[in-house]
Specification:
This protein has 182 residues and is mainly α. The chain has helices spanning 6-18, 28-35, 39-45, 49-66, 75-88, 90-98, 103-126, 133-154, 162-171, 178-181. The protein has one domain.
Length: 182
Amino acid sequence: MKRKNAKEILAESFLELARSKNIDKITVKDITENCGYSTATFYRQFNDKYDLIAWSYTWGISGIMDRIDQDRYERRQSLLDGALYFQEEAEVLKNLFLHTSGHDSFIHYMSDINSSELTRFILRVTGKKSLDQKTEMYVRLYCMGTVSLTCEWVLGRYDVTAEELAEVYEKSLPLPLHPYLL
């Protein structure tokens, strides 16, 4: 059995609080008191609560991306799992978008994370050390688009299921990325 580390416990504490309290009102002290840690422990792990939010998102998404290499785990399933992850975290994400100044920052930062994860995956599949500039641009375009679309979906602009959102992710994949991901 794998034990949770301090980062995971602090992230879970924050997510628990974010389900019932505006994110802009949650303090580091609230997070640490909720899980029984000290603020010193928090600051050994994160710079601030926004660093924790970004780490939590990265942790969730990289867990999905890492499974793509496993037998019988297809890219299509990873897209669905991503949409389900956002659906599960919708309350927290809405809270983040509506109660911080971080909506645009979140889109930019999450696009960076997704681009990095997708690039890492493509490099692993191809055995290359770096992507050519055009492929890098396609990765970036796809990630920026899907992150923005996901934010709009979470905020209720589109009334579709996670399965339908995953289908849009899949069908909007730029043609030059198909050899790596489909």
